[in-house]
Amino acid sequence: MSTPGRPRDPEIDAAVLAVAQRQLASHGYEALSVAAVAQEAGTTRPALYRRWPTKADLATAAIAALSRAAERPDTDDPFADLVAELAAFQRGVSRPNGISLVGSMLQDGTDPELRSLYRERVVGPRRARLRHILARAADAGLIDPDADLDLAAAACTGVLYALLLSGTPVGRTWPRRTAAFVWRAVGGDPSSG
After folding, report:
1. How does DSSP classify residue 71?
2. Eight-state DSSP code of residue 51
3. What CA–CA distance (Å, rounded) separates 133 from 143?
4. In which band, very low, low, confident or very high, does the pLDDT at 105 lie, cut at 50, 70 and 90?
5. Cα(188)–Cα(28) distance, rounded to whole angstroms?
6. N or C end: fewer C-beta atoms under 10 angstroms in the chain?
7. Domains located in the chain, CATH noted
8. What is the pLDDT of residue 182?
9. Cα–Cα nearest to 21, from 62, 77, 50
């Protein structure tokens, strides 16, 4: 279905998302100002609302735009792909206010639309990528074909959250250590890759 009117300017979209990302990192979701984003991005509030009808829509679009998943195509080594995906996840959560933004999604008072869009645009795609990598490994006979891939994908991200919340230093080796831990848990041998 086409929308009447002028076509959207991708430069405005990129500018708005970049400004929203900075505001989210600096001030968090609650202080995100749609009017300030529009002004700094050089557009109007009505133009912004035509693209993102709500503050929650804008915020989750800005967070989802940070993903570089398309730049990480499948290789012939699912274990290396898992390490790369976990490294990208660690970078994302380590951004300014990254973990606090994740925590805010769990609060009782969180806007239900925000929570739903965050799950749809950020959590769901990350879990799907992790599960896809593990499914490729199972199909290749590198891990147990009957392994619980949904639980394994959840463990990948849950380990980082648990360490960060406990104040345990994570370090640069976290992606490989966690990939090896999960790989072994689903019946694989990380040293054979």
Report:
1. G
2. H
3. 11
4. low
5. 40
6. N
7. 10-64 (1.10.10.60), 71-192 (1.10.357.10)
8. 97
9. 62
